[in-house]
Every structure is written in structure tokens, then in C-alpha cells.
């Protein structure tokens, strides 16, 4: 019993040691590396690749329908009650005018058969081949659209993590500075040189900073987990971001990046709308093709066996072979205008798709112009926020000196601090806005392959 206990303990300790030697995987990405990783590993990207694989299989399925088809089978019939018929009795030497009953066939019948069939001409099949190519092209375009969306999501979530990290850094810096100021102010108050209200005002400001810091710490965790999901990695994995917010913002601060070039007909969304138009056109072509004749051929070969006993697997059983060649020509003549009605419905659907494409083209142009305008505005806003931060830091430093020397009140100093904190937040947010609006602009200007 003691040996069993020792053995169980050994297994438990070994398992713990193995689990400690198998930590969660660690990742380290720049923004560009994160984008490239997500394009391959994001959950929606994986399924988009599978959609393409399924479309390629669908294309082959359609192609195979027009290639030779071979089928084989075995049929068995047990005639436990043979069908009877009556014939004139004089056939068997009986009395004329009378009839006798005869049973035809055997109790057991088995047939082994095979068939080779081939479509010779079918307009529907030709259209189906064209439709399968359009079907595959749609999913390839959808994959490109998905790639653009994943890229934008990763940029946004990567920027949100950097924003939270920078906020934490600045809040910690502000907290350290305010802790020191509060300590010095409290000492001055103890010496009776200032009123207690000054100390209390600083405590209120410090409490607000601590609250914002705790919230931002929680927000950083949420933003990091969202980035991990967009990358397609486990949320418990370690992730280190190597790019900095200022670096990314500076790399996107260029009006030339918002050049007025935009070929709407090469954009992914326009190509997807073109896929819909092509699909409706082929549906119209399909309805028209149904008025054409179709021709097919088949070759049949098989063996039949009969007997009143089930001896089909006996070597003495006699089998009778048969074979034939057949052709089938179907010519549509009159459908009471049913085909015409279906053709007109397909024509209406095609016209609707064409109109929708025209509408989509105009909307895409507007969306691009909006994205371009928004990007240019965010660049201007960034420059303004940067200048406002410089002025707010200068004002806060002056108010700090005045407050320390007893020239200004705690309210003036607090107002200057709050103005600085707001300017800091606006500056950080303006950098993220530049990065995100540039990502949106890139999404509209990316062309299909």
C-alpha cells in the first residue's frame, strides 16, 4: 500500500514538472509582423481560405458532371407469387373456346449491370461551367476583402493597446509628480503657511488620477485580449508589441499618402458587385439555354440469371449477357410560355444587379472621399493637439511655480493640471486616430488581384 502511495505521488510530481516545463507560447510582433501573422491565422481568414478550397471542389464537381459517368449495380427479385395469365386451351390440345392458366417466369431473378453515360451537348452544362468560375472568383475576392478587414482590425487593436500603455505611462508619471507636490504642500500646510483647502484640492486631483490609472490598466488587458483574438492566438499567450505609438503615428503623417487616386472599378467591393452581375447574367443565359436541345448517349452491359432455386453463386448457374447502345435527344417545343416567364424573371434580376452595381460604384466613391477627408482632418487635429500639449505643459509649469510661491490658488493650479491631463489624452488619441484613419483609407484603395 505504501509503494502504491509513493508511485501515485511520483506521477503527480512528474505531471506538475511537465506542466511547468510547458508554458504558454510567447509572441513578439511589430505592427507589420502582426498584420502578416493575422492574415494567415485570424479565425475568419482561415475560414475564408476554406471557402476558396470548397469553391475549387465545387468547380470540379460541375466539370465532372459533363465527363463520362460509369455506374454498376446488382438487382435481385424474388417472385414468391408468379404472375399468371390465361391463354386459349387449344394451344395445349384442350377444348376450343376454353382457357387455361399459365405462370410465366421463375421464382428467382438476378441481374448484374453496368452503364457508361456521356453528355454530348447540353447548354445548361456549358453555363454551369462558366458559373463555377464566377463562383470561385467571388470567394477569391471575398478572401481579399477579408484580408483588408483583418488588416484594419489588427491596426486598430494594436493601436488601442499602445494607447493604453502610453496612458498608463503618463498617468504614472503624473501620479508621481502629484504625490511629490502633495507631500510638499502638506508639509507647508503643517507649518501653517497655507490653508488646508490647497491640500484637499490636490488630494481630489490625485484620487481622479488613481481612478483613471486603475481603469486604464483594466482597459489595457481587454485591448490586449482583443488584439490576441484578432491575431488568432490564445488569450493566455504572452504578447509583446515592439512598435511604439509615436513611431507608428509619425510613419503615417504624410499628406501624399492621401493622394486623390482611386480606381473604383479595381476596388475589392466593386469586384464583388461585379461577381453578382456576372452571376445574374449567367442565370439569364441558363434560362435561355433551356430552349436548346440536349443530346446524351449511354452504353449498357450486363448479365441476367433465372431459377426456381437461389443458386446464383453456383458454378453451374447459367448467365445470359446483354449489351446495348442508346442515344437520347430532347427537344423543347412548347412550355405554355413557362420558359419565357422564367427568362424574363432572370432578365429583371440581371437589370436589378446592374443598377445595384451603379449605386455601389457611387457609394464607394463617396466612402473613399469621406475616408480621405477624415484622414486629412486627423493629421490637422494631430498637429493642433501637439501644439496644445506644448502650451498646456508650459502653463502647468508656470502655475506650479506660482502655487509653490503662494502667488496663485490651488484652484488655478488644479485647472492647469486638468488642462494638461486633457491635452495629454487628446494628443495620444490624435496619434491613434491618424493610424486608424490611414488604415481605413488603405482599405478603400487596395485593388483586387
Characteristics:
449 residues; alpha+beta; Outer membrane efflux proteins (OEP); single chain; disordered N terminus; four-stranded antiparallel sheet; two-stranded parallel sheet
Structure, explained:
This protein has about 450 residues and is an alpha+beta fold. It has two domains: about 325 residues, Up-down Bundle (Outer membrane efflux proteins (OEP)); about 90 residues. It is built from nine helices and eight strands. The strands form three sheets. A four-stranded antiparallel beta sheet has the order 2-5-7-8, with no helix packed on it. It has a two-stranded parallel ribbon with strand order 1-6. The chain has a two-stranded antiparallel ribbon with strand order 3-4. The longest helix has about 70 residues. The chain is elongated and about 150 Å long. The chain starts with a helix and ends with a helix. The N terminus is likely disordered.
What is the compact description of this entry?
The chain is an alpha+beta fold and 449 residues long. The chain has 2 domains: 25-66 and 122-292 and 337-445, Outer membrane efflux proteins (OEP), CATH 1.20.1600.10; 68-120 and 296-331. The protein is built from 9 helices and 8 strands.
Amino acid at each position: 500500500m505504501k509503494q502504491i502511495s509513493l508511485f501515485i505521488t511520483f506521477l503527480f510530481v512528474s505531471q506538475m514538472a511537465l506542466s511547468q516545463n510547458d508554458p504558454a507560447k510567447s509572441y513578439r510582433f511589430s505592427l507589420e509582423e502582426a498584420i502578416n501573422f493575422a492574415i494567415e491565422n485570424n479565425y475568419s481568414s482561415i475560414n475564408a481560405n476554406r471557402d476558396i478550397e470548397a469553391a475549387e471542389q465545387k468547380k470540379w464537381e460541375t466539370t465532372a458532371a459533363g465527363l463520362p459517368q460509369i455506374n454498376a449495380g446488382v438487382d435481385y427479385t424474388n417472385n414468391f407469387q408468379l404472375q399468371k395469365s390465361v391463354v386459349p386451351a387449344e394451344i395445349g390440345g384442350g377444348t376450343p373456346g376454353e382457357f387455361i392458366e399459365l405462370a410465366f417466369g421463375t421464382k428467382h431473378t438476378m441481374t448484374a449491370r453496368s452503364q457508361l453515360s456521356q453528355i454530348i451537348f447540353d447548354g445548361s452544362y456549358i453555363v454551369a461551367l462558366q458559373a463555377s468560375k464566377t463562383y470561385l472568383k467571388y470567394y477569391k475576392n471575398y478572401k481579399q476583402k477579408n484580408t483588408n478587414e483583418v488588416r484594419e482590425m489588427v491596426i486598430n487593436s494594436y493601436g488601442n493597446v499602445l494607447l493604453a500603455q502610453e496612458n498608463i505611462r503618463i498617468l504614472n508619471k503624473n501620479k508621481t509628480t502629484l504625490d511629490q507636490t502633495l507631500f510638499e504642500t502638506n508639509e507647508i500646510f503643517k507649518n501653517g503657511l497655507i490653508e488646508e483647502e490647497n491640500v484637499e484640492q490636490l488630494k481630489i486631483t490625485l484620487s481622479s488620477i488613481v481612478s483613471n490609472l486603475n481603469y486604464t490598466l483594466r482597459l489595457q488587458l481587454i485591448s490586449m485580449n482583443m488584439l490576441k483574438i484578432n491575431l488568432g492566438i490564445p488569450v493566455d499567450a504572452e504578447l509583446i508589441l515592439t512598435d511604439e505609438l509615436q513611431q507608428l503615428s509619425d510613419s503615417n503623417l504624410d499628406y501624399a499618402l492621401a493622394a486623390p487616386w482611386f480606381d473604383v472599378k479595381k476596388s475589392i467591393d466593386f469586384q464583388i458587385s461585379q461577381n453578382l452581375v456576372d452571376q445574374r447574367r449567367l442565370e439569364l443565359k441558363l434560362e435561355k439555354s433551356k430552349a436548346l436541345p440536349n443530346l446524351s448517349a449511354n452504353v449498357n452491359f450486363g448479365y441476367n440469371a433465372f431459377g426456381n432455386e437461389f443458386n446464383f453463386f453456383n458454378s453451374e448457374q447459367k448467365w445470359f449477357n446483354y449489351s446495348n447502345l442508346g442515344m437520347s435527344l430532347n427537344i423543347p417545343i412548347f412550355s405554355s410560355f413557362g420558359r419565357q416567364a422564367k427568362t424574363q424573371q432572370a432578365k429583371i434580376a440581371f437589370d436589378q444587379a446592374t443598377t445595384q452595381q451603379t449605386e455601389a460604384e457611387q457609394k464607394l466613391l463617396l466612402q473613399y472621399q469621406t475616408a480621405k477627408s477624415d484622414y486629412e482632418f486627423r493629421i490637422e487635429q494631430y498637429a493642433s493637439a501637439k501644439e496644445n500639449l506644448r502650451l498646456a505643459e508650459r502653463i502647468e509649469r508656470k502655475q506650479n511655480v506660482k502655487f509653490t510661491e503662494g502667488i496663485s490658488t490651488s484652484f488655478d493650479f488644479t485647472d492647469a493640471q486638468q488642462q494638461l491631463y486633457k491635452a495629454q489624452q487628446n494628443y495620444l488619441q490624435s496619434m491613434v486616430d491618424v493610424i486608424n484613419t490611414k488604415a481605413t483609407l488603405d482599405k478603400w484603395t487596395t485593388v483586387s488581384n
